Amino acid sequence: MEFARKSAGYLLRLESALLIFLALYLSVSAIFKKVVAPGALAGEISFALIAAIGLFICARGFAQRKSYGRAPALLANLIALGVAYFMISGKLIWLGALLGLLAMVTALSALLGYTE
Predict the structure, then answer these.
(1) Please, are residues 52 and 80 in contact by the beta-carbon 8 Å criterion?
(2) Inter-CA distances, 12 with 24, 37, 42, 77, 79, Å
(3) Cβ(84)–Cβ(97) under 8 Å?
(4) What is the domain range of residue 15?
(5) What is the pLDDT of residues 84-107, one digit of tens each?
(6) Domain count across the chain
(7) For the segment 50-65, what is each residue's pLDDT rounded down to a tens digit?
(8) For 37, phi and psi rounded to 5 degrees?
């Protein structure tokens, strides 16, 4: 159980960092490319940043052995599994498979990483 708890903390921090890099990429690419829907892009960037903050807070909960990070971490990764499914069905097979694998491992770690 201790390994799953530590793994969940590390994986949640990794997911948080990936979301921050995604928000930075979208922000920088908006400077160099023509933005067709700026409202949608702003929503995507803000959602990625808010999700990154939430995942980081969940990771801190696992590091402090608190229970407040378990359910949101599990829910976020179950949502990521759905996103991975749509990515795979949209012909982004490798990216969707990697996201699905990361989401499954993190969800399993979050599920098993907490004991009362």
Answers:
(1) no
(2) 18, 30, 24, 9, 14
(3) yes
(4) 2-112
(5) 999 999 999 999 999 999 999 999
(6) 1
(7) 999 999 999 999 999 8
(8) -125, 85
